[in-house]
Amino acid sequence: MKNxxxxxxxxxxxxxxxxxxxxxxxxxxxxxxxxxxxxxIRIENLTQGDxxxxxxxxxxxxxxxxxxxxxxxxPGHLFVSQNYPNPFSALTYIDVYLAMPNVxxxxxxxxxxxxxxxxxxxxxxxxxxxxxxxxxxxx
Length: 139
Known about the structure:
This protein is 0% helix and 53% strand. With 139 residues, the chain is mainly β. The two termini are 26 Å apart.
């Protein structure tokens, strides 16, 4: 029996509204009411283990939190990530983990429910990445 796995993903071309949250960090320094230019700023996200360095004149960091967590690789389980980055302007990715070989059907719909991209393929077990480009089909 041919099993089908339907993944319904709602993406919009103007992805300004998302489930992710942005954190904006802005760094300024002054000494005796005089603005001081910072040479560099090192930022560490201790929760996720990420690091970044800002160099002058950039003093603002925007962190996009999507809450993509760990997934379970036990037999019979499926994992589908939220698209990332989210929001996106040109290209976004969706990861799918299959515990066993299966036929995967990926459909992308606009806000009016119209299908704007479709991909169906038999995939082996493991992690697979789909990319979606605004105005193009999935690959």
